[in-house]
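Why do we care about 3D structure at all? Because function follows from shape, and shape follows, mostly, from sequence. That is the central idea of this module. The next example makes it concrete: a single protein chain, its amino acid sequence, and then its structure expressed as tokens.
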Amino acid sequence: MRRSADNVTTMDVLPDTRCKQALHPRKNDQDGPVPDTNTARQCNPGPDYRKTKKELIDELHTVRQRLAALESVPDKLRQAEEKLEQANNEIEETTYAIEQSIARSNNMAVESELTYLELNQIFNASGDGIWSVDTNYAVVRANAALTKMFGVDQDEIVGRKCHDIIQTDRCHTHECPLRLIKKGRKRVEYDMQIDSAGPPRFH
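And the structure:
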């Protein structure tokens, strides 16, 4: 036996020859071999479970850290449950808001469709000539009264410039109704007189 620098007692292992003799002695009598117990223990001392003081302290510190981590698990689980519940509440609120928005959009779409149908009915049934012109002076649509007034089909009007269809003294001037509306005028009203002897005139 010997003692190491860390105060751990270790056991010297004997040479192979003595180990073989101790573990497998020759038969001396009828009762069989008598093993050399002390020598055999030295030849196969088995694992050394003895540890230094520093190693024991380190292991104790590790165990304490693991215990502390385990003790914090319930708090972490509770916090996770609270966050999950909060997230579920937010999802429910967001879903409700989306459903309300969809319902309002559907109602607005229905109202817009009804309004369009009413305006379209008024547009087509009016005895006055009406047309729609976009910001590029192109005719978008015209009612039956207007096409009858000009003696043309609707296909001959839609898509053409308004000043190509009707030449008036206000076309290409600052008094053009569309120019006035583009500048911010809310409403522009003129009476137009169509004379077969000359171009239409606004009054």
